[in-house]
Amino acid sequence: MAEPNSSTTSSDGDHSASYDNLTSAAGRIAQNSIFERFARAGFVTSGIVHLIIGYIAIRVALGGAAGATDQSGAMAELASKPGGKIALWVGVVAFLVMALWRLAEAALGKSSEPGSDSAPSEVINRIKAFALSVVYFAFAFTAFGFARGSGKSSGAQSSGLSARLMQSTAGTVALIVVGLIVIAVGGYHVYKGASRNFVKDLKGEPSDLVRRLGIVGYIAKGLAIAAIGLLFILAAAQSAPSKATGLDGAFKTLLAQPYGATLLVLAGLGIITYGLYCFAMARYVKM
Fold first, then answer.
1. How do the residues of the chain divide into helix, strand and coil, expressed in percent and rounded to 5?
2. Residue range 34-49, pLDDT digits in tens
3. Per-residue pLDDT tens over the stretch 110-119
């Protein structure tokens, strides 16, 4: 009987050991008390941003002062308040730490549940972790701009990027693909809320209140995200980049519909509910 190739076996063993060491190191970083506190603070900051977005949406629906009903509008609102810029600088750090945490999960898997998923689920979870890291890096960048006093409307930036993409057929197709992806992300949020799948992300057995906040919050946010994707597709189909203005455009399109004010109030309440759930995640989410 032929003996196993010792060099190959050794190489595989070294590779496995190196991966285990990296995973262990990532786990130690994620479980580091300072790192964990900042990451959890990111959920608090995200909760505050969602509360302000919901508040602005309701204010617009009721005919109050207008404002951008998205994260840039929320951060502009926060920056205008006493101590708001200090809160935004804290938010920059917290969002960056959250982005790095998700990036580590994308590269090495979950430190809290190593090897707990099948191979296909592991791939999907890593893709989701990478997507979340991009979102949190974007949040950090937006917060950084408003903390410095140079923040810009995310809706205007989205519209400008869409206009550049529509200058070519390939760009228009890319915008439609982005819209479909965004709709899929929104659909996943709705599914996660309706199926209560989000409970798996939390430590222990969440209370009925936390479950209700998660159900309503995820469904509301999912519908809002899907509406953004639909606007991207409509903008590409109609060669109207001004329609691709993100969450702000989605809410204002909703307001223009029959019973739009009522619908926008409900949407605002849904986003506020998600913001409250973010506070629950700050305490209970697995790290």
1. 80, 0, 20
2. 777 777 888 888 898 8
3. 655 555 556 6
Whether this model's pTM surpasses 0.85? no
- Spell 90-105 as b/e; 16+ CB within 10 A means b: bbbbbbbbbbbbbbbb
Integer Cα distance of 94 and 96 in angstroms? 5
Total Cβ atoms within 10 A of residue 39: 24
Q: Please count the helices (runs of H) and the strands (runs of E) in the chain.
A: 10, 0
Question: CA 193 to CA 138: how far, in whole Å?
Answer: 24
Question: Could you state, in order of their start, the residue ranges of all structural domains in the chain?
Answer: 32-284
Identify the CA nearest to 202 among candidates 98, 111, 286. 286
Residues 6+ apart with CB under 8 A from 182: 225, 226, 228, 229, 232
Per-residue CA distances from 280 to 5, 95, 125, 134, 249 (Å): 52, 17, 21, 22, 29
Which residues share a beta bridge with 285? 202
